[in-house]
Predict the 3D structure of the following.
Amino acid sequence: MSHLSRRGLSSRHPARSTAQAITAHTRLLATALLSSLLLMSYVAAAAQAAPQPQRDAVASAASAAPAAPAAAGPANYCNYNVSTQSGRCFYSEQELLHYNATQATITYIAVYNWINYNLGGGYKTFGGNTVCTAAFDNEGKNLPDMRNMLYTMPNGGGVGPSLSDTISSVVTYDSSGCAVNLFDGLNYAGATSGWLFDTPHLGTVGFYDRAASLRIS
């Protein structure tokens, strides 16, 4: 009976024994998982604290050095003052137009490489410090040699060819009261167009692509 009683006592609560075994196993797994997490945190912290010379050097140089300016092309957009026989040049057409709009100088004429005042072939404006007089005379508003003067191309196109022997149309501005006289030789030599106001096609006066110098009055 004693044998039967011991067996009966040991098998009286089988569910409790199983639950205790599961609980113990779960605690072991939890302890192992916690240890793994702690180890991973330690490794990550050590990696974050480790020096990274290449990355840090690049970041430091970028923050210390000033930004390099954008590369600028040649200052080809020029305002020419015939009163002083001097010009001021800019890096963009927008800068040139802004300068012209804010200065006290007077715009006298504009010349074009193409007929009908077409900007496509290039253009050039000339101004000065004094208005033109009613008389057609030598007022000092002269360009004796246009070989080294270049057209401004529209829409950021840079510069075009020389003005000499390429002017096809001219505009004279009413606000300045100016007219222009073209010459087919340097220093006002050779044939002349006579005094002109707005002329959309210089071929009508026999001066298409012929002008090498000019006077403004």
